[in-house]
């Protein structure tokens, strides 16, 4: 080959061009389809403690999810995603962090921190020992039940009263009985035998002389008895022979409402009537003195309530009306003055109004504007303020739905509700309902408060029965220190 020219032409190699057929499957970018039909995904995703290392608690930002790691790629194809969704191994909520093993998460430090922080945000309200929630709410049962055959069926009667000596008196037919709740001894007080006197419908123990009790009848007769002796001390007669409504004592003075619309005042030391108020135009159902004795509240069949100024410095005949006329949409029997705020008066109306209104004698606006009004759509038969807690108790009868069809006279139809025939306690001043307990099978006719202010007696004419309920508790007295001055220097 020697002697050949150096510039001999050599056929160049052809440059390799790209063609689809020249690319083999080994160089393709397409993902291979992986079939997981025969793979136990739960076993692969959740490995046992012996086949996998201990799981490390993920540490991520609390606002950015930290997904738990899994051993199998479960979302590489639509088919594997569907399989994983069926077994519950993945979900679409990307921002939700869930641990694989709940037991591990419950015992983790993060879980305990979250629980403790949630407890700090939760406000636990402490229930006072004097509240009805801690007493009647803990045991929604009556303490004592007594029979009352012949209880007056009139829903506006006052057949029950509780004395300061812990004696409960009740009018049954033409008789009046009383029981000493300490000794449980029942005694017969009197029997109204004269036809001209009618039947007992209202009884009220005296506050000045706890052994004296006034008994009002359906024909306007009011007799004053001494329970210790068992004899009648005095008898008064209403001029028009009208039925006696509500009665209340202020010292030796008895105020009694009459069917003719008058409020008459009697003195236990005087056989004659002292004076009267003639402002009402219908039967007076409610008569109640304020705890300080400065005001008198009266209510009638037309739903009108008056508040009178009966201070000791002026005669009862010169009583002045405080504010304007309070008007309810139904008869008002329930009246209650607040013992720890004497200027507050609670009034309750019956069917078809069913409201509780609270008024204040110190309000700058006219007294006719209530401080608070609570629509219950249930007949309110009596009201009792608690002397130990800021709570108001109400007893009820028939309930109705104001939105339901009405009768031909335009009045709502009776409909049972949780408040029907119940004892209900409301908080003050929020008026929030604390509890409601069904007291009787029929309407609660009347109620009275115990001398210590912790229990309430209710009476039901339909059942002819009375029940005592432990509603509140007296506050605990602070314990006297053992090293006090009086203890060290007391005479022994």
TrEMBL record:
InterPro entries: Cdc20/Fizzy, WD40/YVTN_repeat-like_dom_sf, WD40_CDC20-Fz, WD40_repeat_CS, WD40_repeat_dom_sf, WD40_rpt. GO terms for cellular component: anaphase-promoting complex. It holds the Pfam family WD40_CDC20-Fz. GO terms for molecular function: anaphase-promoting complex binding; ubiquitin ligase activator activity. WD repeats lie at residues 277-318. Keywords: Repeat, WD repeat. Residues 146-469 form the CDC20/Fizzy WD40 domain. GO terms for biological process: anaphase-promoting complex-dependent catabolic process; positive regulation of anaphase-promoting complex-dependent catabolic process. PANTHER family: CELL DIVISION CYCLE 20 CDC20 FIZZY -RELATED (PTHR19918), MEIOSIS-SPECIFIC APC_C ACTIVATOR PROTEIN AMA1 (PTHR19918:SF5). Belongs to the WD repeat CDC20/Fizzy family. This is WD40 repeat-like protein. It comes from Phanerochaete sordida.
């Amino acid at each position: 080959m020697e002697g050949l020219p150096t510039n001999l032409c050599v056929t160049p190699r052809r440059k390799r061009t790209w063609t689809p057929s020249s690319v083999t499957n080994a160089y393709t970018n397409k993902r291979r389809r992986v079939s997981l039909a025969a793979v136990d995904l739960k076993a692969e995703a959740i490995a046992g403690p012996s086949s996998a290392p201990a799981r490390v608690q993920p540490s991520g930002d609390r606002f950015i999810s930290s997904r738990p790691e899994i051993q199998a790629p479960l979302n590489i194809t639509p088919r594997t995603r569907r399989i994983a969704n069926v077994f519950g191994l993945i979900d679409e909520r990307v921002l939700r962090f869930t641990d694989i093993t709940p037991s591990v998460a419950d015992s983790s430090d993060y879980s305990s921190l979250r629980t403790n922080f949630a407890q700090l945000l939760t406000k636990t309200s402490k229930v006072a020992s004097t509240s009805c929630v801690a007493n009647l709410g803990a045991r929604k049962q009556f303490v004592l039940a007594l029979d009352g055959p012949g209880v007056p069926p009139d829903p506006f009667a006052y057949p029950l009263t509780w004395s300061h000596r812990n004696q409960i008196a009740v009018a049954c037919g033409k008789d009046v009985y009383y029981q000493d709740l300490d000794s449980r001894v029942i005694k017969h007080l009197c029997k109204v035998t004269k036809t001209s006197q009618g039947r007992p419908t209202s009884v009220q123990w005296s506050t000045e002389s706890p052994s004296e009790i006034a008994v009002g009848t359906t024909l306007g007769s009011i007799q004053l008895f001494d329970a210790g002796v068992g004899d009648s001390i005095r008898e008064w007669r209403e001029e028009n022979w009208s039925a006696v409504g509500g009665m209340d004592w202020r010292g030796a003075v008895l105020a009694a409402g009459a069917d003719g619309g008058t409020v008459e005042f009697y003195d236990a030391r005087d056989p004659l009537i002292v004076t009267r108020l003639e402002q009402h135009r219908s039967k007076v159902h409610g008569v109640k003195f304020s705890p300080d004795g400065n005001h008198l509240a009266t209510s009638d069949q037309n739903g009108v309530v008056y508040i009178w100024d009966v201070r000791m410095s002026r005669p009862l005949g010169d009583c002045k009306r405080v504010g304007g006329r309070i008007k309810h949409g139904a008869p008002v029997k329930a009246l209650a003055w607040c013992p720890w705020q004497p200027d507050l008066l609670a009034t309750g109306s019956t069917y078809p109004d069913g409201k509780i209104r609270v008024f204040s004698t110190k309000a700058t606006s006219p007294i006719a504007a209530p401080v608070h009004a609570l629509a219950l759509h249930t007949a309110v038969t009596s009201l009792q303020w608690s002397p130990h807690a800021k709570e108001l108790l109400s007893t009820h009868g028939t309930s109705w739905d104001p939105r339901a069809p009405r009768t031909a006279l335009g009045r709502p139809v009776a409909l049972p509700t949780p408040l029907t025939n119940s004892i209900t306690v409301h908080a003050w001043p929020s008026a929030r309902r604390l509890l409601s307990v069904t007291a009787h099978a029929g309407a609660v006719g009347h109620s009275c408060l115990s001398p210590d202010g912790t229990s309430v007696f209710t009476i039901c004419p339909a059942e002819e029965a009375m029940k005592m309920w432990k509603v509140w508790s007296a506050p605990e007295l602070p314990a006297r220190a053992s090293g006090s001055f009086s203890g060290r220097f007391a005479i022994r």
